Structures are given as C-alpha cells and as structure tokens.
Amino acid sequence: MNAIEHGTRRGYQQHKARGGMVCEPCRDANNTYMREYQRQHYDAAERHDRYLGYKDAGYYDRGVA
Fold first, then answer.
1. pLDDT value at position 64?
2. Is residue 8 within 8 Å of 29, Cβ to Cβ?
3. Residue 2 lies in a domain
4. DSSP tag of 23
5. Range of the domain at 44
6. For each successive 10 residues of the chain (65 residues), what is the average pLDDT?
C-alpha cells in the first residue's frame, strides 16, 4: 500500500478509499479544490432558476393533499 499524499486532493481521496478518517491538511486541500471547481462550473442564479422550474412543475411534491 502506497503512502498517502497528505495535504492534497489526491490524499483526501486516498483517505476515503481506505476508509479512514481524513486528516485536516487533506480535508483543507479538498475543500479548496471543490470551492474553486464550483466557482468555475456552477452559476448560482442558473441553479436557482432551474430549482424554481422543477418546483413549479411539481417535482418536489410528495403527493400530500
């Protein structure tokens, strides 16, 4: 088994794959990566508009009268 690359997103994934607890440097690296990824790939206004469209279409209704 290879050593975990602490302080990197890969290290985070290695922790998760092994089923152990994730160390703080790896968690921080993953959080930084995800924050940047979401900033580049997701538009909050677009997501909200899509949510409202699904809501209006009844997608979230549970069938409760």
1. 59
2. yes
3. no
4. P
5. 9-56
6. 93 95 97 94 91 93 69
